[in-house]
Write a structure and sequence with these properties.
Elements (H helix, E strand, L loop, with lengths): L2 H13 L5 H10 L2 H4 L4 H4 L9 E3 L6 E8 L12 E15 L1 H6 L1 H17 L4 E11 L5 H21 L3 E8 L8 E11 L14 E6 L9 H4 L8 H4 L9 H16 L5 E4 L4 H12 L3 E5 L12 H6 L5 E6 L4 H10 L3 E9 L3 E5 L8 E6 L1 H6 L23 H9 L8 H4 L10 E3 L6 E5 L4 E8 L2 H6 L1 H17 L4 E10 L6 H20 L4 E7 L3 E2 L2 E2 L3 E11 L15 E5 L15 H6 L12 H12 L4 E7 L3 H9 L5 E6 L4 H6 L5 E6 L2 H8 L5 E8 L3 E6 L2 E6 H8 L1 H6 L1
Parallel strand pairs: 4-5, 9-12, 17-18, 24-27
Antiparallel strand pairs: 1-2, 2-3, 3-6, 4-6, 7-10, 7-11, 8-10, 9-11, 12-13, 14-15, 15-16, 16-21, 17-21, 19-20, 22-25, 22-26, 23-25, 24-26, 27-28
Length: 736
C-alpha cells in the first residue's frame, strides 16, 4: 500500500466519511514532508533546544532568545567581561529553505524565500534587523549553474534591499551534486522585547481572524507538496505555477504596519501565510491553542476572479499575515491596514470546535461547508515514517601527487574559496546602521545598542565535508560556525538549522541525513549551543542524483561592544603571527578528507579528527580576540591554512611564514576547524591564555611589501597580493 493510500484510509477513519476535495488537498499539503517532517521528525529529538536564554523554542514561526547583560566590572585588565543574567532585550532566529522554487524560477524563488522568513520574524512581534543567505549550486564552470547563481543572488538582493533589511552574511558553495537541485537557505534575525512578544498560539474563542496584506491570487498553488517531491527533468517549465511571486514593496508596508499593530497591542496571536497558504496558517494557529475556527472563504480579498474555495485556501500568494484580534480591536486593525495601503479581511472567528471553512459564491443559493476537520488532526495527525538507512562508508586514503605551487593556485583560485565580493556587494548591508563588521569577514557583527552588546552572526555548511563524512562533517560545520564567532570575540548563544537532504526513501541518502542530524546535534550539545528552531528540506533529488547532505547552521553569539579585530593583517614590526589550535602541526597525522585540495586535485582521505574540549578552546580564543594587543584574527577552515594566509595579506601588509613539517600539502590544505590565525604584539599573553587548551605556534611576521612568502618544510612559494587578488576574483571575472 502506498503512503497516499494509507493516509487516505487514516483520514477516512478519523472523519467517518470521504474527505471533500478541499479537505483532501489540505491533508495532501499539510501532511507533506515539507510541512509535517514525516521522515525527519523521528530524528530531531537528538537536538537540545533548552537553555535559560531560550524564551520560545522550536515549533513557532521563529525562535525567541534573550540576550545576556554585560557587566564591565566582572573583568580585569585584558579579560573578556562575562555575560550576566538575561536582559529584557530579545532576538528572534529563523531559517527556511526555498530550494525547489529557486531551481524553477531563481529570481522569484529566492526572493520569496527572503519574504517568507521575514514574515516569520514579524509574526513573533519582532522587527527584522539582519539576513543571511547560504547558497549551494552545481559546478561553477557549468553555464546552468551560473544562470541559477546569478538569478538567485539577484532575487535576494532585490527583495532584501527593497524592504530595507541588511543581508550581512552567509555562504556560497559549488559542488557537482547540486547541478539538478540548488539550495537556497535564508536566515533572519529580529529584535523585540518581552512586551512585544506574540506567538502563533490562538488565545480565545470569539476572537476574530483577520487577514492583512496582499490580495490572494492563484500563484504558488500546491507549493508545499511541490517542495516534497523530487525535481523532474521538466520542472523548470511544468512546476512554474507552484512558485510564488513576491512584492517587496508590499512587504515593506507590511513590516511597518505590523510594527504599529504590535506597538498598539492589537494582536493576540499571529501566523504568516507560507506553505499551504491560508489553510496552513489559520489551521496551525488555532491548533496550537487547542481551538478551532469558522472561516468564510469568500471574505478573503482576492485579486483574481472566480477563485474556487480550494484555490483560496491553498494559494501561497505572498505578503500576507493572519492575525487573531479581539472584536473591539478589529476596526483599529483595519484603519492601520488602510493607512499602509494593505488589504484587510475579517475572515472568521476562533472557536472551540472543529476547523471549519465555508464558501458562498455569487451564484450559490446556499453556503457550502468545504472543510470540517479537527485542527490538531489536520496539523499533527500525519503518521511518521520509519525508514531504513545505511551507514555511510568511510573513505580510503588515496592522495594525489602534485607540486605545491600548482595546488596552492588551484585551491586559492577555486570558486569555493574565492572572494564572494561579487555576491555581497549587491546587498545593502548598511541599511539600519547596525552592521559594524560587514560581509566578507569570518562573522558579521551587528550592534544591539538596546542591550549594549554586539551580535555576531555566522551561517553556512560545507558540502565537501558532509559528502566525505556526514556525521563528522556536520560536527565540523557546527565547530566552524562557532569558531567564526570566537575570532570576532563573541560567545555562542543559540543556533537554528536548515537540514537539506535527498530522497529519504533511499537508504544511503537517509543514512547520510541521519548522520548530519546526529553530528550537528552532538557538537552543538558539546558547545552548549541550543538549537532553537529550524527547517527540514528533503527530496532534493533530481535526474542528476541526490544532493550532498547539507546541514546549514545559522549561529549567533554576543560580546560586549560592537568592535572586533579585522581579518586583514596590518604591517607592524612588533607583531607575531600565531597559528592557534593546529594539533596536527609537527606530525604526519594530517587528514585531508573533505578538503578543497582533494576536490581540486582528486583523491580521497579520512576526515580530520576534531579537537577535544572545543568549548574551552573557543572561550580562550574569544578572550584573545578582545585583547588590545590583537591586531587581526582569522578562522582557518575552508581551503586550509593556505587560503587563510592568502586572505589576510593586502597591498601594504604581507606575511612571511615558515612551518616545519614533513607534509607540506597536509600542513597547508587540511581543513580541521577550531583553528585560527592571530596577529598580535603580545604573543606570550596569547600563549598564557591558551595554555593547556590549544597549541600555539609562531609561524611568521608581517612585511610591508604586500607579498605572501610561505616556507613549508623544504618548499617555498611566493605570491604578491595582486596575484592572489586576481586568482580570488574568479567569480567576478566570469560573471562581469
Amino acid at each position: 500500500m502506498s503512503e497516499a493510500d494509507s493516509d487516505h484510509e487514516l483520514i477516512v477513519a478519523e472523519l467517518g466519511r470521504e474527505p471533500t476535495p478541499a479537505e483532501a488537498a489540505l491533508f495532501e499539503n499539510l501532511w507533506s514532508e515539507h510541512c509535517a517532517y514525516r521522515s525527519s521528525r523521528p530524528l530531531l529529538s537528538a537536538f537540545e533546544s533548552e537553555g535559560q536564554q531560550v524564551v520560545v523554542g522550536p515549533g513557532d514561526d521563529a525562535a525567541v532568545v534573550a540576550l545576556p547583560s554585560y557587566d564591565d566590572s566582572s573583568a580585569g585588565d585584558g579579560e573578556t567581561p562575562e555575560a550576566g543574567d538575561n536582559s529584557d532585550v530579545y532576538i528572534t532566529l529563523g531559517i527556511e529553505s526555498h530550494n525547489h522554487p529557486s531551481y524553477v524560477d531563481p529570481f522569484d524563488g529566492a526572493a520569496t524565500g527572503v519574504g517568507g522568513i521575514v514574515r516569520d520574524t514579524l509574526s513573533m512581534g519582532a522587527y527584522p534587523i539582519a539576513l543571511t543567505d547560504s547558497l549551494y549550486f552545481g559546478s561553477f564552470d557549468r553555464e546552468h549553474s551560473r544562470y541559477l547563481f546569478e538569478g538567485v543572488v539577484d532575487g535576494i538582493s532585490h527583495y532584501g534591499n527593497c524592504i530595507g533589511v541588511p543581508t550581512v552574511g552567509g555562504s556560497v558553495d559549488f559542488h557537482p551534486d547540486y547541478e539538478g537541485n540548488p539550495l537556497v537557505n535564508v536566515a533572519c534575525v529580529g529584535l523585540l522585547n518581552e512586551e512585544r512578544l506574540v506567538t502563533a498560539v490562538a488565545q480565545e474563542p470569539g476572537n476574530k481572524l483577520v487577514l492583512v496584506g496582499n490580495a490572494t491570487g492563484r500563484d504558488g498553488l500546491g507549493g508545499a507538496s511541490f517542495a516534497s517531491e523530487d525535481l523532474a527533468e521538466d520542472a523548470e517549465t511544468e512546476d512554474r505555477p507552484a512558485v510564488q511571486v513576491g512584492d517587496p514593496y508590499a512587504e515593506k508596508l507590511l513590516i511597518e504596519a505590523n510594527e504599529q499593530l504590535i506597538d498598539e497591542n492589537l494582536i493576540e496571536s499571529a501566523r504568516d501565510l507560507g506553505a499551504a497558504g491560508l489553510g496552513g496558517a489559520s489551521s496551525e494557529l488555532v491548533a496550537k491553542g487547542g481551538l478551532g475556527a469558522h472561516i468564510e472563504l469568500e471574505r478573503v480579498h482576492q485579486r483574481e476572479p472566480n477563485m474556487t474555495p480550494l484555490e483560496i485556501l491553498l494559494a501561497e500568494s505572498q505578503e500576507r499575515m493572519c492575525y487573531e484580534v479581539e472584536p473591539d480591536n478589529v476596526d483599529r486593525v483595519r484603519e492601520i491596514a488602510d493607512r499602509f495601503d494593505l488589504g484587510c479581511s475579517v475572515i472568521g472567528d476562533v472557536t472551540d470546535g472543529n476547523y471549519v471553512c465555508t464558501f458562498k459564491g455569487v451564484e450559490q443559493d446556499e453556503r457550502e461547508t468545504v472543510v470540517d476537520v479537527d485542527a490538531e488532526f489536520l496539523g499533527e495527525g500525519a503518521p511518521m515514517n520509519d525508514l531504513p538507512w545505511n551507514e555511510p562508508a568511510e573513505a580510503d586514503t588515496e592522495l594525489p601527487d602534485v607540486d605545491l605551487e600548482t595546488a596552492f593556485d588551484a585551491v586559492v583560485g577555486s570558486p569555493n574559496t574565492a572572494s564572494k565580493r561579487w555576491v555581497y556587494r549587491q546587498y545593502d548591508h548598511e541599511v539600519g546602521v547596525r552592521t559594524s563588521v560587514p560581509p566578507g569577514d569570518d562573522a558579521a557583527l551587528v550592534a544591539i545598542r538596546e542591550a549594549d552588546c554586539g551580535l555576531a552572526i555566522s551561517a553556512g555548511a560545507a558540502p565537501n565535508w558532509t559528502a566525505a563524512s556526514p556525521k563528522a562533517g556536520a560536527r565540523a560545520v557546527a565547530l566552524e560556525n562557532a569558531t567564526n564567532l570566537a575570532v570576532k570575540g563573541a560567545t555562542p548563544l543559540a543556533a537554528v538549522d536548515c537540514l537539506n537532504g535527498g530522497n529519504p526513501e533511499k537508504p544511503d541518502v537517509y543514512g547520510g541525513f541521519k548522520g548530519i542530524v546526529d553530528g550537528l546535534a552532538g557538537m552543538c550539545a558539546e558547545l552548549s549551543v541550543p538549537i532553537v528552531g529550524g527547517n527540514v528540506s528533503l527530496y532534493n533529488d533530481s535526474v542528476s542524483g541526490p544532493i550532498p547532505p547539507t546541514p546549514t547552521l545559522a549561529m549567533v553569539g554576543t560580546k560586549l561592544g560592537y568592535e572586533a579585530p579585522p581579518l586583514a593583517a596590518t604591517a607592524d614590526e612588533d607583531a607575531t603571527l600565531l597559528l592557534v589550535g593546529d594539533d596536527a602541526l609537527g606530525t604526519d597525522s594530517f587528514a585531508l578528507g573533505g578538503s578543497e585540495y582533494l576536490a581540486q586535485q582528486g583523491g580521497t582521505d579520512r576526515f580530520p579528527t576534531l579537537p577535544e574540549n572545543p568549548t574551552a578552546r573557543l572561550e580562550a580564543l574569544a578572550t584573545v580576540a578582545n585583547d588590545d594587543s590583537t591586531l587581526a584574527t582569522h578562522d582557518v577552515s575552508h581551503g586550509g591554512l593556505a587560503v587563510s594566509l592568502a586572505e589576510m595579506i593586502t597591498e601594504t601588509a604581507g606575511l612571511e611564514v615558515s612551518i616545519e613539517t614533513d607534509s607540506p600539502a597536509g600542513a597547508l590544505f587540511h581543513e580541521t576547524p577550531g583553528r585560527a590565525l592571530v596577529l598580535t604584539t603580545d604573543p606570550e599573553s596569547v600563549r598564557a591564555t591558551l595554555d593547556a587548551v590549544a597549541p600555539v605556534t609562531a609561524i611568521g611576521a608581517t612585511t610591508t611589501d604586500g607579498t605572501l612568502s610561505v616556507t613549508v618544510g623544504e618548499d617555498t612559494l611566493e605570491r604578491t597580493a595582486g596575484a592572489i587578488a586576481d586568482r580570488r576574483s574568479i567569480i567576478e571575472a566570469e560573471l562581469e
